[in-house]
Fold:
Amino acid sequence: MVELSPLAPAFLLLAISEVMLGSYVLVKGRLSPVNRSFFALTLLAGVGSVLDLVVASVSSEEQAIWTFRLLVFLLIVEMGVAYRLSTMVPHPVPMLLFGNNRWAYEISVVAVALLTTFSVWGMVDEDYGWVPETDLPFVLLVLLTYLALLSVTMIKRWEGLRGLHKRQAVVFNTALAVPALVMIAIMALAMFGAEVPRIYGLGESISVFVIAYGILRYKMLVLPRVVEPAVHHRTVPTLVKGRAYLFEIASPDRMFESVAQEMAGGMSAFIIARTHPDQIRAKYQIMLTPILWLAQTPGPDRVDPSNVQMLTHMTMEFVRKGPSVIAMEGLEYLMLNNDLNKVLRFLSQLRDEVIVEGSILLVSVDPRTLTERQKAILERELEVVKE
Structure:
């Protein structure tokens, strides 16, 4: 039997507001891994708030035990998603212990969640509903470990952050720590004899509202559009808007010359390159145009070549802001680090978006690195430019 707690409206309001906020942020950036992770976080938080209500409302200890076990499981998975989100902002960095191995991380989170659920053996009926006989295993094993992970990751990346990135990291990590701190505060009050409602969703709501503001305010992983002239050293044929070109040339110089010429004509550009950005900026006098470096070492203005999802989000969002030039050097490196079908799907999506938005896509590749099959597929999707 379930008799709803007097606090039911508060629990339900928290659950509904969390999920609605997550859905709104997801709609604003469906391709963004940050927005998607945040939506998963709010979905788990919303379900957790409903389970808080159920724990406070059931009539028997056995029902309370099993409901609270499910709540603990969801809370740990939620913190796993939250920590993963912290490694994405303001730019992606490897997770502690797991690096970029998401499968191993997710399996470990689920395993810890399953093991921790069985630390719940007895419940006590108080004025505000059922509470566990002891919170100690959950506090020590999960909450403190979670806060330690957030802190160590923040410390490791701090030296590499500058200006706006530092502010973003502080806002996001503080917001992600709030739910755990609120839970610890509630549990500490209970340990000293105070009977307080276990509205854990209160901390989660504060957290998701701050994170949502940060995502929408800072437009995470969305690159700025600028118009600046670039220095081009030789004249190249004028490109046509709404077209996608494949430069089958050993050196990417001709592609970069084409980018510089279009920029001189007033087009915004976004460059993805295997060449270090400093070399491109120095040669073509590009100061503000976003250049994303394909590199496995983490840092600002870099992306791991295996993270095609991130590349897809960033390029699509840039193109949708208005006519622009998207230039990609290092296609061979992407193919080396990904399944070929994934790379081709990315190029195909980007090509279609460029055509619709009246932009220009330039892809440079050394033909000597391609198989005949790869070359045939690329030539079918893109207009070939040769020496």
